[in-house]
Amino acid sequence: MPDQEYTVEQAAAHAKTWCDKHGWKRICDIPDSDSLYYAWEELPQKERAYWIRRFGEYSAKDAWAEFGPKRCKVEAGYITGAGEFYTDILDVPRFHNVMMVFKL
Description:
33% helix; 4 strands; 2 domains; 4-stranded antiparallel sheet
């Protein structure tokens, strides 16, 4: 059975409908979506200490920005072109374009 393919436009349309129904917002509808993720200054001291030990005090912030896991402050998920919701991008079937959504 061949994989089904969905476009970005389909994902965006399904995400708009889904967000209107559930009270979430699409990433493209949030002016400063970077503020939904933790910044270096907001990390717990223990996590910052780990990066400082590995990369030194002066390059730890840059190393974390480049390679560190970006944790979201709010609940997030993905709506596929088929209109399905997933909490993990790795669970989305191949060729299903997605739109990221946030619970605000």
